Fold:
Amino acid sequence: MTRTLLLAISLSLAACSGDDHPSPENPRQTLSIPETTFSGEYSAEDFDLAQPVDYWEIRLGAIPGLGSDEFERLMTFDASTYEALDDTQKAILEETTVLDTGFGAQCRPLYCPVYAVFLTGFDAAVIDSDALLLEFFGDIDTEAELLVYLTYAQNYKEQVRPLAFEANTEGYRVHVAWDSLCLVRGENLIQVSPDGTIETLEELSQEETGVCV
Structure:
């Protein structure tokens, strides 16, 4: 009787122990993937900024060292708002540029800064770092802010493309495609906190590309 009882206990413990080690026969349940996709089209009202501004835009600057202050507008919000600015305000915007700093970068293997400029009255200011962008947003608490932050300003991977998201009590859970721009790319499920902190929740896929940019 005692030997039978000990054998039953041993088998029970072995079964419980087996649950702690995933296998093809007993895989762990993965987290669900968010289903809400990013619209990609936003107006000024889609941002909950820390302070009111008359107008702002995101730009791609020229390659430093070429002596050019030209830029390309990557994202603008409400063309009618820009058109409503007077000529002096528009001139101030055009003259407010950066040459070699930004909260993001493009043009690899060279460098072009990604930065923002905002206008309040007749005063313009540059946002050219992650810290300044987060200060401008306050908390990341809208879809539009989440997309801008992950696309241009995060320090998570060299290149991130947000695919889908869902809000939760800790911020946002986001499905992203990422690229190291050198040999490896993949998709992850991440958690983005209101202060911009990013945590990997699950690595969904990864593949070698054989290419470095």
About this structure: The mean pLDDT is 86. Helices lie at 2-19, 79-84, 87-95, 130-137, 143-153. Residues 49-138 form one domain. The radius of gyration is 24 Å.
